[in-house]
User: What shape does this take?
Amino acid sequence: MAKGYLSLVLHAHLPYIHHPEDPNLLEERWLHEAITECYIPIIKVCNNLKKENVDFKITISLSPPLMAMLSNPLLQKRYLKHLEKMIELSKKEVKRTESLPEFQVVAKMYQNLLHQAYLIFHVQYHNNLLQAFKELQESGHVELITCAGTHGYLPLLSIHRESVEAQVKVAVDYFKETFGFQPPGMWLPECGYFPGVDEILRNNGIQYFFVESHGLLYAKPRPKYATLAPLRCPSGVAAFARDIESSKQVWSAQEGYPGDFDYREYYRDIGYDLDYDYIKDYIHPDGIRINTGFKYHRITGKTDYKEVYKPEWAREKAAIHAGNFMFNRQKQVEYFSQFMDRPPIIVCPYDAELFGHWWFEGPQWLEFLMKKIHFDQNEIETIAPSQYLERHSHIQPATPCASSWGHEGYSDVWLDDSNDWIYRHLHRAAKSMINAARAANRSNDYWHHRILNQAARELLLAQSSDWAFIMKTGTMVDYAVRRTNEHLERFDKLIQSLRKGEIDQDWLEEVEERDNIFPSVDYKVYAGI
Amino acid sequence: MFSILTAVVVILILVAGYIAYKIRISPARKRLPRNTEKITREQASDVINRTSPFRADMEFAKATELGGESVKKVTFPPLDFSTEDQTEIVLLPKNPQWIFAYWNIFEKTVKDFEAQYGNNSWNISQALLQVYNHTEDSMHEILINDYANNWYLQVNPDSYYTVILGRRFPCGKFVELAVSNKVQTAAADISTIIDKDWLPINECWKVCKDYTAGISSQEFMDK
Assistant: This one.
């Protein structure tokens, strides 16, 4: 019998980037990079563990925009083309590094990884990775959950309850359509919690969500077990908190594993380093240099001088770090279980995109960790939150504190002078949407319903937290501003056309094709009925 | 000579095969006019986009602007719903110490104000925010100017607030223009409220003493 639980949560999300009109959009590379470097390696790790009969449980949150992109035939086709191009580059790289044996080892590693990616993506899952996640859910190794509709940052949308209800309901409905079952939990985008959102979650069948550590530590009344057990919100929904110590070990720039000098250096990429004539076919057609994913150096130290990456050294470190992580969790569990009347639960949520993309060795670390937990010890059991709730139903009632996992722990990232201008527009649009939805609810007109469904898609897309986040971080700001404006402009045109009783069908069809997320969306969610 | 003839025959076979293939797939194409249209549009965009990733969208926006010449304009009964623009003020809590307030003042509000209080009454009155702390039952005022449409307000953690947007005449008379939503700022510390059935376990709380909010992926990526 284990003394405590480890609940590892990977939240996978990318904003909805769907531009049928532009096959070379830089931002579409985000999806390509994440599929190759994160999602496929995570799937590979889980499948390896399954094959080796390792008993493990991971919770994976798939955001609706990511689910929509992974199942979109056009984007699948484009990714496959990209992957083929990268395989072609890997062959060239193996040849180019013939006289540089240390580099060639790395080139061959990439060639091998890309071939495996092709086999997994195209041959095994026929271009649809959602199938992989579904199989892992069905075999009991992964608990699949989702997050709000377009990853809207709910605390700042909450002045209209209908906006939050729509973000939650649309996501749950879409998840059910895609996977065929009710998601047991929800990842609140950016862990953005405000008291009352739990009631909306409950109304949509959600049993649990996650908050940043102080979401529980500052709860009212004070929690008995700090972050080591969930709280029951007034709505009945359970709130689990991020563990402080294990967060630091992975996230912290100073103390975290990903900064180890033997790990791969993210910021040295042949897309920037090699001669233009050699690399031009693998960067943006306009000649804009971008990451290719071929990186040959290790972090080495706090210096610009970088040594060549040694895959076997990095792998060794990933194993050591997995052992260290497990050892620390064992110590935590051993210590706290002495004082608690229930096994402590250590919740470790991470962005899935950290694993493989920023932290190249992250998936290896995950595999080592799950194996070590299975084979080398008895103190910890990996668990999904819904399993915990089945075993421990007597939970302390309390109200968590409004919080997020962003910098400073509240809404600072999504609300400052770089992005505060968007909220008056988002709120105005939400108000129009609510008024129009209520009016149309009494109408039987086909066009009213069709136009309002598209208006709902535009509003949801404008509400993605990603745009405010990008504006704050200062890179690719033009794209974030453009997307916010575009969706709001399209929304306004749709609303105007409703009042006018006239629409250009070509335009509507084009907008429906481009912003085609949530095909079954029902605008009535905004009518509050 | 023989090889040239062979090549010609092979080319003819290929051409015939291609024509047969086109004939075979053409009915299917006709059944899917919309798909064909999409492909054409995408191909056209490909060409446009070679130089600029955004040009195609601009072209699209121009070509499909509402109210322009359209071949497929459809009409339906107009939908009647309220979009009355009312002067409003909205509060968004940023963190335990700050609230962001924005407001929209519409021309009608200014006209109505001047109609009631006389010509130039808008200009001679001072815009201000009355910040109500319901938790402490206190109020303070912040003078604002007519160019601002938003303000960051310094506040207390774990408190309820509303803000009234208004104007004050030199004589002291205050006119309310809009009342905000009521918001609660987040707590910034551990609660003093204890549930006697769930007495905190000191050992569980020991590790939390050095806790600082806000370690995030962003921090990691920045460094």
Q: What stands out?
A: Residues 2-31 of chain B form the longest helix (30 residues). Residues 17-68, 215-223 of chain B have pLDDT under 50 and may be disordered. Residues 66 and 73 of chain B are 9 Å apart (CA to CA). The two ends of chain B are 72 Å apart (CA to CA).
